[in-house]
Amino acid sequence: MSILPIMVVGALGLAAAQDDRIQVVLPRDAIPAIDAPEFEPADRADRAMADEELVIGLVGERERRAYSTWQLDRHEIVNDVFEGRPIAVTW
Fold it and tell me: Containing domain of residue 79, as a range?
């Protein structure tokens, strides 16, 4: 695999990055997915969340869900079932 050179500007000035090695920062499966998530009623979640907190929202014919991006920052994927269909919510 080859990576194109990039220019990096930092506090110490301009430097060229021309390294074709891939660095692994986290091992495989280091960030666990959330499987079968549990939800709070909206009025209860409203007390625990800030007004400006971001969510990924789903609205269907029978269900509504809000997935907190704060939680997704720590897990990145939620495997769930929404209106009978398996879904993956990613962040």
Answer: 26-90
